[in-house]
């Protein structure tokens, strides 16, 4: 039976395991050194023996030899099977010693060579590192010098910035004062302008009053003279020719101040009198004819010039009683080198102008239903965006992408005047009712009035949105803008007189000949008619398939204002009836690209359309 020591101890198991592991490690490590320790001891013994041999050889070679042999024999003992003489042992020992020395010398030489090579490698590496260190130190010196320069430059720039900041603050304060002064001057200028306008109005009223008084006096005087002349009975054959001419000239001169209404009443009263004689009747009739002729000549001489300069008599303009609806394409031309942007008929309906992106304006004659080339106007500095004839048909005005409008005289190939002053593309240029004044609109958000006689900008109007088109009346002109608004301006006033909002960006405006209706084309694919008498939209035209192709698509009224005409992006022409608002017709023709502009001649017989594919089409 086991004693108490044999009882189970839970802690004794792991201890025994640790002890066994330690013992196993000791055995493993000891086994590794079992062979080394004897070899090391044997080497130590040999080293001691060799040391003793070397000492003896230096002192007494013979004694050493004998001692060595004696010790050798002692070590060999009586059990040694072989015996060698001392001379042999000495030679053998010397050979072993020389071999050992050679081995040691070779090993030492090898170590010396190896160490020398390593030393050379280290020396070259050291030299390389020293050269790199010198280069790095030189680079560091350069960088330090550059850093010092940059620091000085930064300090100088900081000083300059501080000085410029101070100067900027001074200039800002000065600018604020100048702006305040400018505002005060503008207000004073507006006040002075209003005062000047009021004075001009008063002066005009006084002048009108004086003219009325003078006219009444002249009328009374002429009435008295006519009455006296009517009472006299004179035979025309008895009057000398000189006297007859003098009376005729005097009567014509006096008749200039007579109103047609007073002349008519006077003539009616005269013809109600009893018949006197043939001679008296003839004299009175001749006086009336001369007076009427003088009045008509006076009206022709007056003209419509705002500046008071005499106007040239305009060519005869065909009167359109009823416009003819186009039904088919009569002539098709590839008129320009690139897309055609603008087209316009002259006042006489036989001359046509087209302008395109090739910077050229071509003039065409409409002869026998065909377009015949008349002239090419050169000199435009950019793409043509708008063309217009003056009321006489003798001048052409064009808007260009070259930030200017240019004026040509029909018959001259080179430009006559360049109206420069805009800062962006000029999108519209139109004559007023006189050939001496024009209006231009641009993408620089300005509208300008021009005196063409001096090529001088008489007025610049700043607008919130850029202008796409303008139309002109007598003193009123209208502009259509990209902010979906129509603005009305009066040449005699400084401000906008009226603003009418519409849906969609405005691309074109067309004013009827009676100046009572305005046609608007906009990017919402609709046409609108505004009645200018009530400033209200009267009609809105839509159609399936009609789409406004660009921001410069132009639509026009027919000459009799019965129809509205526009071109679509699919190359079709759409015609609406203005009175009913219905689509009258839709024409699919030779156009394969979007139609940019259309024109209806003043006689109402022809329509021309131009597109982005270089085509000009004459419709009949």
From TrEMBL:
Compartment(s) of residence: Cytoplasm, Cytosol
Coiled-coil ranges from the UniProt annotation: 119-213
Swiss-Prot/TrEMBL WD repeat ranges: 333-374, 377-418, 419-460, 557-586
InterPro entries named in the record: ATG16, Autophagy-rel_prot_16_dom, WD40/YVTN_repeat-like_dom_sf, WD40_PAC1, WD40_repeat_CS, WD40_repeat_dom_sf, WD40_rpt
Compositionally biased intervals (Polar residues): 63-73
Keywords: Coiled coil, Cytoplasm, Protein transport, Repeat, Transport, WD repeat
GO BP term, example: autophagosome assembly
Record has Glycoprotein as a keyword: no
UniProt cross-references to CDD domains, sorted A to Z: Atg16_CCD, WD40
Transmembrane segments annotated in the record for this chain: none
An example Gene Ontology CC term for this record: cytosol
Sequence segments annotated as region (Disordered): 60-88
Domain Autophagy-related protein as annotated: residue spans: 17-208
Task performed by this protein: May play a role in regulating epithelial homeostasis in an ATG16L1-dependent manner.
Similarity comment: Belongs to the WD repeat ATG16 family.
Identification of the protein by name: Protein Atg16l2
